[in-house]
Amino acid sequence: MASELHEAIFMAKQERHKNLFLNYRNLNIFPVELLKDEGMQFLERLFMKRNSLTTLPDNLAQKLPNLIELYLHSNNIAIIPQAIGNLGKLQSLDLSDNALQVICPEIGQLRSLRHLRLANNQLKFLPQELGDLGELETLDVSMNLLRTLPERLHQCLSLQCLTADRNQLHCLPRQLCLLPDLNELSMAANCLTSLPLDLGRSMELQFVFVDNNAHLKGLPSYLYNKVIGCSGCGLAGQISDVKQLCLTLGDVTVPLPSELKTIGSETDHVLPLEELACRVQHAAYNRTSKDVKFLTPFLLPKSLLDVVQWPLGHCHRCSQPMFTIVYPKLFPLRETALAGVHKRTTVSFVAYCCSSHCLRTFNLQG
Record keywords: Signal included (predicted)? Predict the structure, then answer.
C-alpha cells in the first residue's frame, strides 16, 4: 500500500497533475511526500476521502498554494490549523464526517470559497467570521450540535443553499430572510418553535424543509406557494390514534388531507400549502356542487371555479388531484397554470398551522 502511495504521488509530481486521488488509502498522517521541497505548486484538486487523518499540516497552503478543491470527507480530523486561511484560491472544502468540535475563525479568510461542507461533526457553534465568505453559495452544517447560527451569516450575499438538519436549533435568525439569492433552506429535525414572519418573502426562496420539528407552532404566510417539508406525491399516511382533522363549512364537514399532521414526522411527505389548500377546496366543492348556496364560503371568484373543478392531473400513485406541480425541481411552481392566477386576482385560501392543528384563513395576493 505504501509503495502504491509513493508511486501515485511521484507520478503526479513528474507529470504535474492537477488532480490527485488519495481516497481509501488508510492514511493516518498527511503524506510527507506532498510537502517535500516546493511541494506541488500545480495541484488544484486533492481527494483524501475515507482515510484516518487526525489533523492537517500547518504548511499546507505554502506547499499546495493553488488548491481549488480539498475533499477530506470521512476522516478523524479534530483540529483545523489556523493556516487553513492562507489557501486563498480554495473554492470547495469538504470536512464532513470528521471529529471537529471547533472551526477556527481563520476560515473566514477563504474569500474565494463557494462550497463548505461540515456535516456530521461535533460542532456546538460556528464562528462569526463565516459571514466574511462573500462568495459562499453552499453551506452544509447538518448533523452537529448547533443551538444557534452565526448572526453575521446574512452577510454571505451569494448563499443559495443552507442546510442545518439534525441540530438543536430553537430559532432561525431573522437576518437570513435578507439573503437575496437563498433558494433552499433546510432545517429539518431541529427544535424549532417558530419561523421568522418574513421567511419566504424573497422570490428566490423556493424550498423550505422544516419537517420533523415537533414543536413548530406556525408557518409564515409568505410560504404559501413554497415547498414545505419533503415534497412528494401526497400518498396518504397511516392514521392511528390521532383524530383526523376536519374543516367545517356551514353544515358540511370536510376531512382534511392526512399530510396536515405530518409536518413533525420523518416518514410522511408534506406538500406545498398551496397544493393542500386546492385539494381541500376541490373535495368540498365536489361533495356539495349541487348546493349552489354552499359556494359562498369559498370566496372564490368565478374565474377560479374552473381551477377547483379541473385539476392539472392526478397522481399515478395515490390518484389524488394535483393543482400545482408537486415535483418543483423539474417544474418550478412559477411555471404552473396557477402562476398567472396569482398575478391577477386575490384568492382566499386556507392556511394550515400544522403543528398546533389549527386553521386560519388569509388572503393571498399576487
Answer: no
Q: Which three cell numbers stand for residue 52?
A: 484516518
Nearest to residue 328, comparing CAs of 229, 207, 199, 159?
A: 207
Residue 314's CB is within 10 A of a number of other CB atoms, namely 11
Sign of the C-alpha dihedral, residues 13, 18, 23, 29? positive
Cα 110–115–120 angle (5° rounding)? Answer: 105
Closest alpha carbon to 74 in 22, 38, 139: 22
Longest alpha-carbon distance in the chain? 87
* 260 touches 305 (CB < 8 A): no
- Decide: 160 and 181 in contact? Cβ < 8 Å: yes
- Assign 362 to helix, strand or coil: strand
Question: Is 220 in contact with 200 (CB distance < 8 Å)?
Answer: yes
Which cell numbers hold the place of 4?
502504491
Instruction: Give Cα 325 to chain centroid, integer Å.
Output: 19
CB atoms inside a 10 Å sphere around CB 156? 25
Give the residues across from 117 on adjacent strands: 94, 140
Give the integer Cα–Cα distance in Å for 192 and 183.
20
- Reported as a single tens digit per residue, the pLDDT across 246-283 is 656 566 666 655 544 444 444 545 566 667 777 777 77
Say how far apart CA 230 and CA 188 lie, in whole Å: 9
Please give the class, per CATH, of domain 1-168.
Answer: alpha beta
pTM: 0.66
Is the separation of the CB atoms in 308 and 282 below 8 Å?
Answer: yes
Instruction: For residue 321, give the C-alpha cell.
Output: 388531484
Count of helix runs (H) and strand runs (E) in the chain:
5, 16
